[in-house]
């Protein structure tokens, strides 16, 4: 046949595996150090083959191809930097710069041993950096589609970096409707209402809803809309995510055609009226403003307008991110212009600046240190569960 | 897309000057001097035409769109600037490039379908998906995972609304863009330069009169019009051509680049006259058979 595939780079010649970080539907992530003159720390993502124990080349999945291509193409201080990609002996390794923290871990740290609010300055800097990264992605026609605390990395120097482009896509003129390729995307708690209502032509606005949810979670230290995922039935039809939609309505109130003119055109629009039946909270929703004030009070943010308090600007920004109508929702660029970011001086480029809180380093397990052999990718291990820490709902469905 | 093209890997790593490209090719030919001497091949453009016909044969039953075909052509061209063709089985490279391009262009095809069609349409000798899977690794590695391709079609769509091209002109411009993948132009020029060239030729060639097939003589005439632009503000007869010429002169489009693109297309249409499917097929078969690359 062909002269055969012989790669020029070998993972084990270039990196020393320090330990195992996490695994997911895509494969496994390891922490590594540079070798043979290469310095620094790295995170290496090893893709698992389509089928377990695959010993033959069977073609690379479309999502892996997308991620490889996007990682190679994109470069921005607030997007996780891809060092290189190595294809070696039927395996794909993406080597990323290492980040000591992520938002999930930071939120978790503030919940334990007792709840202690994340400083308002830290939140402002995180959100600002997150939006800078998102503006870059959207300007380059990339939708992330899976923003959630576990995917937002933070380095020990307080630089925020958007990670995991595993579901990201270029959205200019897709050959097929974006809906047909992948059935459902975005972890359910951060999923935008238009997706819950079955929209087929969704837009980068889905990422901004997720940013709103993340902002709320940084403030309250709990997911704002913590719904239970309805599983796909045996016929593989995508179910209406009733519980998730309920959680949103309980705080935000019902969406209305006045505020969201295209609401009635949503495929699952009919489901909305049935939500209200027998649920008293639908007629007396908490209201986002009440939620916000309760949250600031519970987490003991000091009263009055100051840099230590997210303030009324914070509420205004949150409200415009958690806007039902995707066309009215702020874009990433508009969000960056919001007075929240300027009212008490500019946000810091280091989100840990002036913070006395010490965050623990990333947990690394020692039981699976051989990236090339031993543990077959995809086999169940007793290492850290997916996304580590507390139980999170299933993240994503496999692409069709 | 403008902003994303300027920072793209396509511009940074896969756009060459003519000299650079010639040098790259010389390097790989030198490293396989023996093979090159033993197995002479037709002109690269003729091979490209052959490859395109092969790809199109396979794309039709699978319903693969033009843009994926174009991406596959660019992948093949990039790959063969880094790997000597006589060391490969071109049929396998073509099938794999198309398979990969379909995934990148969001119209994925199952690897088994690609294999089945390759065997059906081309009588390909490989009969195992793992061959395509392995070749995919090679292709991606040689391209350093730089798989996103910016095509001139999008620039053309923007120009089309700006200049309100009539449908025939648009069709002709589209056809000229399709043809440019048979040349080295995708490795030499930015997509918007190609799109402007295609639009310019389409307007000047007046498709309604000369039919939809561009030819060398027609394109050469168009070059003269371009000459007017270089001498700035020549007295064009038609107002429409004049508007285009004025726009070209005033914009900061590199006129030399448009001239170069036009010349490249002229020589493509000239050499096309000598194309023989059979000759390409036989000459490729020679080294593939002799070296057992189809095994």
TrEMBL record, chain A:
List the keywords (alphabetical). Activator, ATP-binding, Kinase, Magnesium, Metal-binding, Nucleotide-binding, Nucleus, Repressor, Serine/threonine-protein kinase, Transcription, Transcription regulation, Transferase
Which cellular compartments is it found in?
Nucleus
Organism lineage: Eukaryota, Fungi, Dikarya, Ascomycota, Pezizomycotina
**GO CC annotations on file:** mediator complex
The UniProt similarity line reads: Belongs to the protein kinase superfamily. CMGC Ser/Thr protein kinase family. CDC2/CDKX subfamily.
Reaction(s) this enzyme catalyzes, per UniProt: L-seryl-[protein] + ATP = O-phospho-L-seryl-[protein] + ADP + H(+); L-threonyl-[protein] + ATP = O-phospho-L-threonyl-[protein] + ADP + H(+); [DNA-directed RNA polymerase] + ATP = phospho-[DNA-directed RNA polymerase] + ADP + H(+)
> Which cofactors does the annotated protein need, by name?
Mg(2+)
MF-aspect GO terms: ATP binding; cyclin-dependent protein serine/threonine kinase activity; metal ion binding; RNA polymerase II CTD heptapeptide repeat kinase activity
| UniProt-recorded name of the protein | Serine/threonine-protein kinase SSN3
* Chief location category: nucleus
Highest taxon above the source species: Eukaryota
Q: Name the PROSITE patterns for this protein.
A: PROTEIN_KINASE_DOM, PROTEIN_KINASE_ST
Q: Which residues form the Protein kinase domain?
A: 15-341
Share what the entry says about its subunit structure, partners included.
Answer: Component of the SRB8-11 complex, a regulatory module of the Mediator complex.
Which SUPFAM superfamilies did the record assign? Answer: Protein kinase-like (PK-like) (SSF56112)
TrEMBL record, chain B:
Q: In its keyword annotation, does this UniProt entry include Transport?
A: no
Keyword Cell inner membrane included in the entry's annotation: no
Gene Ontology terms describing biological process: regulation of transcription by RNA polymerase II
Q: Which keywords belong to this entry?
A: Cyclin
- The chain positions of domain Cyclin-like read 53-141
Q: Name one Pfam family in it.
A: Cyclin_N
Q: Name one GO molecular function term.
A: cyclin-dependent protein serine/threonine kinase regulator activity
The record's listing under Gene3D superfamilies reads: Cyclin-like
Indicate the family of this protein: Belongs to the cyclin family. Cyclin C subfamily.
Name of the protein this chain belongs to:
RNA polymerase II holoenzyme cyclin-like subunit
What is the protein's species of origin? Pleomassaria siparia CBS 279.74
